[in-house]
Amino acid sequence: MAGRKEDELTSLSSLGNQATTYAFDYAPEVLEAFDNNYPDRDYFVKFNCPEFTTLCPKTGQPDFATIYISYIPDQKMVESKSLKLYLFSYRNYGGFHEDSVNMIMNDLIELMDPRYIEVWGKFTPRGGISIDPYCNYGKPGTKYEKMAEQRLMQHDLYPEKIDNR
Predict the structure, then answer these.
(1) Which of 37, 29, 28 is nearest to 8 (CA)?
(2) What is the SS3 assignment for 144?
(3) Rounded CA gap, 11 and 115, in Å?
């Protein structure tokens, strides 16, 4: 892999591991980070995770969502396979949609300390209602804090036409 140091790649335990273990309960400890090769540049990294599942804390029924994660890294970035394993760990977690989205954001902030991050959950309807919680964060005292405030106020100015759920 161009641009990556060999010792950095060997420190990632999930990447390339053929004997992957899947946690069926909330497991933030599976998240791994690596060094950002471009810490002097602002750029977005976006993950679209269309197979997210969690359980309704009241009924135990599954809730399905696409989780969108966008962030501007600082010194660290999240490794994608560990993110996949982490999101999978919500499979048997009983939490409300808003809890899951905020927990994902908090865990990623703790892991990476990004300049900016936003997490948006687009849950499929149950009982005729879909719930789409959105949260974001900008590093305090920086332009990203102001960016977070603006994006929060404007995040849904142009809601999508819902025709597939």
Answers:
(1) 37
(2) helix
(3) 24
Quick check: 25 and 92 in contact, CB under 8 A? yes
Nearest CA to 114 out of 24, 23, 46 is that of 46
Segment 54-113, tens digit of pLDDT = 999 999 999 999 999 999 999 999 999 999 999 999 999 999 999 999 999 999 999 999
Alpha carbon 118 to its chain centroid, in Å, reads 8
What's the pTM value of the predicted model, to 2 decimals? 0.85
Question: Using one digit for the tens of pLDDT, what is the confidence trace for 8-55?
Answer: 555 566 555 667 788 778 999 999 999 999 999 999 999 999 999 999
**Which residues are the active-site residues?**
56, 63
Main-chain phi, psi angles of 59, to 5 degrees = -105, -20
Cα 85 to Cα 87: distance, rounded to the nearest angstrom: 6
DSSP state of 151: H
At 65, is the secondary structure helix, strand, or coil? Answer: strand
Whether 15 and 81 have beta carbons less than 8 Å apart is answered as: yes
Contacts of 144 by beta carbon, 8 Å cutoff, 6+ apart: 72, 115, 116, 138
